[in-house]
Amino acid sequence: MDVFAIFSTRVAEALKALYPELPPEVLARFVVEPPRDAGHGDLSTNAAMVVAKPLGKSPREVATAIVAKFADDKDVASAEVAGPGFINFRLAEPIWFEVLRSIGAEGASYGRSDIGKGAAVNIEYVSANPTGPMHVGHTRGAVFGDALASLMAFTGYNVTREYYINDAGSQVDTLARSAFLRYREALGETVEIPKGFYPGDYLIPVGQKLAEEFAGTLLDKHEAEWLPIVKDRTLAAMLALIKDDLAKLNIHHDVFFSERTLHGQGGDVDLTLAWLRDEGMIYEGRLEPPKGKTPDDWEDREQTLFRASQFGDDVDRPLVKSDGSYTYFAADIAYHRNKYLRGFKHMINVLGADHSGYIKRLEAAVSAVSLGEADIDVRICQLVRLMKNGEPFKMSKRSGDLVTLADVVEEVGVDATRFMLLYRRNDAAMDFDFALVKEQTRDNPVFYVQYAHARTRSVFRIAERELPGFDLSPESLWTADVSLLSSPAELELIRMLAQWPRTVAAAASAHEPHRIAFYLYEAAAAFHGLWAKGKEDTSLRFVNADEPKVTAARLVLVDAVRQVLVNGLGILGVSAPEELS
RNA sequence: GGUCCCGUAGCUCAGCGGAUAGAGCAGUAGCCUUCUAAGCUAUUGGUCGCAGGUUCGAUUCCUGCCGGGAUCACCA
């Protein structure tokens, strides 16, 4: 259960009863939230201030009227008007115990909601070029997209995790030619990898496999014959490589969508452009060179343009290159029309910072192909600077030997990598310090949170040891009389746990998984604090053999903490270890 | 020059239109005979880049500047 949602409803009902003339949009504007200063109470609402102006009344007058409506509410210990017109509620203890019991009842579902109402959402992330192993620069977007997908699924969206394979451009021809050189090498030739080709070692096994499969038969063929064959084999190998890298971070996509399938006679790109033409969204025209920076090879020519500027973009965008082939963007419009026709009215794209200039174009495309029916939210992940002991980490200059995603995971581990990347807003640049991330101290939030979880488990191990015969099964434990929890610190912790559902809901609707990470850190801090109180005063310990009933109640609280940490870490894709070694 | 992102404590960063702007690190002062000190407690530290505007109320929204970063037809 979510006390904030419950009181939001009750306040709304009070307002409706008092002022039936209030329009729904005004009613939708107030919030019930924890006050910034805990001294102000448990819940706080700005309802009176939001509503006062349309009513032509003073905020405090409205607030007083609302407060009166709660006089008989058994869950409210006190309600007062404060400051400019806030209403601060202090809740009666029983409702906190109810919240606590609901955590046990809901278990892994605690915090789940139906905000999404089953709506289909397509989340496209990673979409790295299939020309080699995943680079470290892809890591942030990969982790962000994956956590966001889990978060949306947790709040009732029907999520599809999608990867767009850019396998149609000239770069994959270059890739195939590079692999062909490795094939000749595997057949015994000594080859030089010329400049402009992909020099990485990862193509060596591809060449060897080609040699095994075809022996020398490809050597006699013209490029036009062998290129499609080699390209197929190479792309398949690259995709396997990429899936393997992603699996190291526990990332799995539902759909791998190939750009190539959009091209060709009568393909999606053709169809989409024909459709856009019918709708009058395409014309032949000229573009101005970008202001203040004319490219050296700028050529003023008439080209086929999409009316992106009608949909909020700065300029219209070309769809056909000077050699007659489609631009990347033309295919991307077709791709997003394809998404829309597959039933997605909500799309999220996770892109790197170097694509920030692409956002408006993409929004224009989605708006155009869906005739305004679908929306897209483009989330940009800013650059990650690798550091070691406060110094920028030098990447090798030799191309083909850049720092890979696999290197990072091997160096710092999945959990630390994921948590650290999610412990930042996605749109802020960040430093990623290898030394710090590996450190197991409070400086490192992932260990701090995992340690809290391990401690909840350790309490149960101790209870088993010190209270033999005590039934610790959930069915029995959760029937304990939790009203025996009486210390302020214990109630404080329950209040913290009560905020979990609204935290999840807010994070999901803002598309901001980092809020989950910050919440977990705070919840862990509250738990560590309570733990330490037992150090100073043994009567406050969780396990106390002389007080079995109090112990049972406290174990319920500890188990609730465990549950919330497990649910939260689950969304982030970070493990919740039984103990730290 | 256009567009986008960032600017909050010495450092790294949270902050959902609300009340006296918060954490961690660093600094200072404490806490280990028993639930993991991988931790806890207290404390120092701020013209929220600057200037306007919107309103009952702005760190938050809008505009303009100033810094830092990314990007800028025909690459993908």
Short description:
This protein has 581 residues and is of the alpha/beta class.
Reading side by side through the largest sheet, how are the strands ordered? 7-6-5-11-12
What integer value in Å does the Rg equal? Answer: 29 Å
Poorly predicted parts? 396-401
Counting helices, strands and paired strands, the structural category is alpha/beta
Count, helices: 21
Can you tell me the overall shape?
globular
Describe it for me?
By secondary structure, the chain is α/β, with parallel strands linked by helices. 48% of the residues lie in helices and 12% in strands. The strands form four sheets. It has a five-stranded parallel β-sheet with strand order 7-6-5-11-12, with helices on both faces. Strands 1-2-4-3 form a four-stranded antiparallel β-sheet. Helix 6 (139-154) links the parallel strand 5 (120-124) and strand 6. Helix 3 (47-55) packs across helix 4. The longest helix has 26 residues, at 223-248. Mean pLDDT is 91; it is low at 396-401. It binds one RNA strand of 76 nucleotides through helix 3, helix 7, strand 10, strand 15 and helix 16.
How do the helices and strands line up, and which of them pair or pack?
Layout: H1 3-18, H2 24-27, E1 32-33, E2 43-45, H3 47-55, H4 59-69, E3 76-82, E4 86-91, H5 93-106, E5 120-124, H6 139-154, E6 158-165, H7 170-186, H8 204-214, H9 223-248, E7 255-258, H10 268-278, E8 282-285, E9 303-306, E10 317-318, H11 328-341, E11 346-352, H12 359-369, E12 375-381, E13 384-388, E14 391-392, H13 405-412, H14 414-422, E15 430-433, H15 434-438, H16 445-466, H17 474-477, H18 488-498, H19 500-510, H20 514-536, H21 548-572
Parallel strand pairs: 5-6, 5-11, 6-7, 11-12, 13-15
Antiparallel strand pairs: 1-2, 2-4, 3-4, 8-9, 9-10, 13-14
Helix pairs in contact: 3-4, 5-18, 5-21, 6-19, 7-8, 7-9, 10-11, 11-12, 13-14, 16-20, 16-21, 18-20, 18-21, 19-20, 20-21
The chain binds one RNA strand of 76 nucleotides through helix 3, helix 7, strand 10, strand 15 and helix 16.
